[in-house]
Amino acid sequence: MSHSVLGFSWEGFCMEQILGQIPGTWESFFYRTKVGAEVDLVLQRRVGETPIFVEFKYSQSPKLTKGFWAAREDLKPSACYVVYPGPRAYPLAENVEVLPLSQIHEIWKE
Q: Terminal CA-to-CA distance of the chain, rounded, Å?
């Protein structure tokens, strides 16, 4: 559980689960700027529509970085999700919800 690549492995596994299940018409991106704004996965129903952000955190109490909040300010997503290995969904901040991996289907139900 303390291995240095656990978080990266979790992120890759969760991203594969989402990308394998979202409808084929959706677009997916990674977002990072020179000044450090970053989000793991940006989803859009169609190019030009308001995006949805997805972050992946292997933690029972996930915390988001300054880069996430900067990216949120840049792109103004309609919703933000943090996928974690815990058992229940809960709000983290306004328009940011923490979801267990078992509930990722909620992301594209908006």
A: 34
Chain CA centroid to CA 58, Å = 12
pLDDT in tens, 22-77: 988 899 999 999 999 999 999 999 888 899 999 999 999 999 999 999 999 999 99
Domains, the chain, in order of start with CATH, read: 6-109 (3.40.1350)
